[in-house]
């Protein structure tokens, strides 16, 4: 019997002192053995119900298991333009739907994908896709995060001349400025951008639509405009003491470190060195904050979440092949982050305008018979103070910014803050700014679908 490999990280005491990628790359021999665990199921739920991009996982698994890396690369690249990103930051929805996971552990699809794409780069198989014929039409893509880059690649391959506008100094959006280097080294982004430029895609950085360039200018000079600006509006925690020095949004913290690592700044706007750090919010962004704070030299790091602690195995509320609600422990958590659940925050406490702690209380959750949380109920006499010098708010996002390009192009919004496309005026929205904050792979899938709509509209 072949067991799944669980130890895929560099040693903890080594990795928590640098910003290099924490994951090791499995050897071809290890991948060969792991792919033998893929049964090439009659109905591959990993491909249909799992992967938003529709990657043909059993086929590239089989090719990898046979050592035919070129065929594996051709199969993977047929449906995924940037597998070097997803193999590093995707939670692997495909593995949650793996048939092998019903009675055993799922196949290591993400790690297989990583070896395939990195082998392809090493052997020179990853080349720019230049369309044989240009159709004479121009498209402006605003935003260079995962959905913007994917849209640019899709439209360029279809023959459009694409210009990507980015407000930041370098392209990459969330990939560059939101995801820590220890999960995604930024040289991986630069390597892909070089190929995209060779394919004919243009990039305009340090350019804010609505300020530096008017939306009307884009409408006059391009046949279509695509907004891929993400969800920049973070969910705030408006409780007493919010104004205290020491309370910051997670992305402000993460972007500061990434800009320092990338040479765009010389100082950190928010520094955790020597501080007691409290992260409010139990998701991936909070986990990224934990790993970053540990690397900055925080005195201690704690992450609290109002939701209940997930079960250690798949909850009955998310039966296979749905993405399972269950406890997940990231590499950052293993580096020294304490976690608590069922914790609600009441007020920030400070002295002389500086944060010293957070008053919290415990909650209990009413649940469905399957265990799905429905409603929190305060537990009496559980008020306490968690001492903290730095609080990072990592509670998700409420929607896209209404000012800037959205206002300049007169776009309407949904009740949940998403930007609505305006096909009549050839303005389209894609990714998180349209549907709300989600995963990188879902942003890419959104772009793949919207690109086909644009191609039809401009035909």
Helix content: 25-40%
Counting structural domains, the number is 3
- Poorly predicted sequence stretches spanning 5 or more consecutive residues: none
Distance between the termini: 54 Å
Q: How much of the residues is beta strand, in percent?
A: 15-25%
Q: How many β-strand runs?
A: 16
Indicate the overall shape.
Answer: globular
CATH topology-level fold name of the largest domain = FAD/NAD(P)-binding domain
Q: Evaluate the radius of gyration.
A: 23 Å
State the CATH superfamily name of the largest domain: FAD/NAD(P)-binding domain
Numbering strands along the chain, what is their spatial order in the largest sheet? 3-2-1-4-16
Largest sheet: 5 strands, parallel
Number of helices: 17
CATH architecture identity of the largest domain: 3-Layer(bba) Sandwich
Mean pLDDT: 95
Indicate the CATH class of the largest domain: Alpha Beta
Computed structural class:
alpha/beta
Architecture overview:
This protein is α/β, with parallel strands linked by helices and 459 residues long. The protein has three domains: 12-122, Fumarate Reductase Iron-sulfur Protein, Chain B, domain 2 (Orthogonal Bundle), CATH 1.10.1060; 138-232 and 398-457, FAD/NAD(P)-binding domain, CATH 3.50.50.60; 236-395, FAD/NAD(P)-binding domain. It has 17 helices and 16 strands. The strands form four sheets. It has a five-stranded parallel β-sheet, with helices on both faces. The protein has a five-stranded parallel β-sheet with strand order 6-14-7-8-9. Strands 10, 11, 12 and 13 form a four-stranded antiparallel β-sheet that branches. It starts with 11 loop residues before the first helix and ends with a helix.
């Amino acid at each position: 019997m072949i067991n799944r490999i669980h130890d895929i990280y560099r040693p903890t005491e080594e990795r928590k002192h640098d910003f290099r990628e924490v994951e090791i790359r499995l050897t071809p021999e290890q991948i060969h053995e792991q792919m033998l665990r893929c049964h090439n199921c009659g109905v591959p739920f990993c491909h249909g119900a799992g992967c938003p991009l529709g990657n043909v996982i059993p086929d590239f698994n089989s090719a990898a298991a046979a050592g035919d890396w070129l065929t594996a690369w051709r199969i993977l690249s047929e449906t995924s333009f940037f597998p070097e990103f997803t193999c590093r930051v995707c939670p692997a929805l495909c593995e949650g739907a793996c048939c092998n996971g019903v009675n055993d552990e799922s196949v290591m699809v993400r790690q297989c994908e990583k070896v395939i794409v990195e082998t392809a780069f090493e052997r020179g198989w990853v080349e720019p896709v230049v369309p044989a014929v240009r159709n004479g039409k121009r498209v402006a893509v605003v935003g260079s995060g995962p959905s913007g880059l994917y849209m640019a690649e899709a439209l360029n391959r279809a023959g459009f001349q694409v210009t990507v506008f980015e407000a930041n100094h370098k392209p990459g959006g969330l990939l560059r400025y939101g995801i820590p280097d220890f999960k995604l080294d930024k040289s991986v982004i630069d390597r892909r951008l070089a190929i995209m430029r060779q394919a004919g895609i243009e990039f305009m950085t340090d350019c804010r639509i609505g300020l530096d360039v008017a939306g009307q200018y884009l409408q006059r000079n391009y046949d279509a405009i695509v907004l891929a600006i993400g969800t920049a509006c973070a969910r705030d925690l408006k409780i007493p003491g919010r104004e205290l020095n020491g309370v910051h949004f997670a992305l402000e913290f993460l972007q500061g470190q990434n800009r320092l690592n990338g040479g765009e700044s010389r100082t950190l706007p928010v520094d955790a060195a020597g501080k007691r750090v409290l992260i409010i919010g139990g998701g991936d962004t909070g986990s990224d904050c934990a790993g970053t704070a540990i690397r900055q030299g925080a005195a201690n790091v704690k992450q609290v979440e109002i939701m209940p602690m997930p079960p250690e195995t798949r909850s009955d509320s998310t039966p296979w092949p749905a993405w399972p609600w269950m406890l997940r422990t990231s590499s950052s958590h293993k580096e020294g982050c304490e976690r608590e659940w069922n914790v609600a925050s009441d007020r920030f406490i400070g002295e002389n305008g500086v944060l010293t702690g957070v008053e919290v209380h415990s909650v209990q959750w009413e649940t469905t018979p399957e265990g799905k949380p429905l409603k929190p109920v305060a537990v009496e006499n559980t008020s306490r103070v968690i001492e903290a010098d730095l609080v990072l708010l990592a509670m998700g996002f409420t929607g896209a910014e209404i000012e800037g390009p959205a206002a300049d192009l007169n776009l309407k919004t949904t009740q949940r803050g998403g930007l609505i496309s305006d096909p009549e005026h050839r303005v389209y929205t894609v990714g998180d700014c349209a549907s709300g904050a989600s995963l990188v792979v879902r942003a890419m899938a959104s772009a793949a679908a919207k690109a086909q709509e644009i191609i039809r509209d401009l035909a």
